[in-house]
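Hi X.,

You mentioned you wanted examples for the new student's onboarding notes, showing what a folding record looks like when two proteins sit in one file. Here is a clean example. The first protein comes first, with its sequence line followed by its structure tokens.
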Amino acid sequence: ALKNQEIASTREAARRFNVPNSTLSTRLKGVQNRAISRANSHKLTDIEEESLQKWIISLDTRGAAPRPSTVRETANLLLAARGSIPVQIVGEKWVYNFVKRHPDLLTRFSKRYNYERAKCEDPKVIREWFSLVQKTILSYGIDSDDIYNFDETGFAMGLIATAKVITRREFYGRRALLQPGNREWVTAIECINASGWALPPCVIFKGKVFVESWFDGLPKDWRLEVSPNGWTSDKIGLRWLEKLFIPSTSSRI
């Protein structure tokens, strides 16, 4: 009606159509409705945000998930590439709002992961290894009952873990539990058969003399050893073969 000059003023048009005069004035100036316009915190276009999301997912897939500061710097590079003056930058909280807008992304704590271990989890390497194992089994006619896998693992005794405890009501927050000074290293040798049964473990404690009364209550078929540092050795490995592996497997033939 205003464009056709049917109504003389915006104030009169606002009164007739029952809308605020300020709203009508801003719409005539080209300002979009807040509900359909992009928020100021977005800064990047839809295409730019989609590209940034794909870049983050690509890095995460390769084990190099970026930090929030890196994502913020990349967003600023995208804004700088527009060539506008002054150059826009995103705020300190922009990255967290960006993550909230994209359900495929999540902020979480990272952990260190050894590169050599990660290489061993390469699907191509794993498939090649299993193919070689399968060819060897078929070539020599090896039965699953004759296939074993064994490994050793170590852990420290006396490490406090997170647990629910009962404390006085006056304390606020998590209670600290005193860490015992004894954190001696213990090694366990474990072995499993391809058909699904496992051998009793061999546990190696730190010590010079084996005292049987220390281990009261453990299963009788467990093998217990001692070494100066709680690690395995060639002699312990040989005794494991002679005293545990061969007797346990020979009885099943």
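Then the second protein repeats the pattern, sequence line and then tokens:
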Amino acid sequence: MVRSFAQWTKTLSFPSRLSPQKQTTPVISSPVITPEKDQTPISITPDISDADKDIMSSLVYCIHHKEGCKWNDQLRKLKAHLNTCKHDAIPCTNKCGAQIPRVLMEDHLKYTCPERIARCEFCGQDLSGAALEKHSGICPLEPLYCENKCGHKLQRRQLTRHKASECSKRLVPCRYCTLSFLADTLQAHHTKCSRVPVPCPNRCEMALVPREDLETHLKDQCASLLTPCSFKEAG
């Protein structure tokens, strides 16, 4: 027998829905503390002991006494002294970042501070201290001694031309033997150079002969030394 859907559902059973039980949590109340009228308030300021007072009253020297400061007084006055001590370091007033003792501040601002304004003593240009250090190595008007040690002192812009064409200690090639010599010794070299042309002492048709070839010329080539044969006409 075939059952219908309605008949099938009648045979099914469903568990009943469980409802959660209500749980009550007891509330615990915290006790309320009320201050007593006669209770003494607690002080949070520490008491300065007698030992601390003795320490602050002890006589000390300035921390810069090795640098020459002669101040000495109670320790509690040291901080106030350092606010005026000429040996204590303070930030540069030009804000260059350096810490400079007060006694040296004037020299620092005038000579070494990279933020100072300084004038080049050679060209007169106004520059910052940092820029002046770089400029001092390239200023075209700065006088310098010749690197060849000839003794001349010229402006930087004139040195290149001087070393190339004027310096007595520059190297100059000999035009006869191609060896190089100092300019102030080249003339002396010419008196000994083996390739310098010299006149033939016999005044032959060869006007000039290299010095090293002169002996050979006089021996074998000079026309003035050739003796005509006495039998020349006879053939």
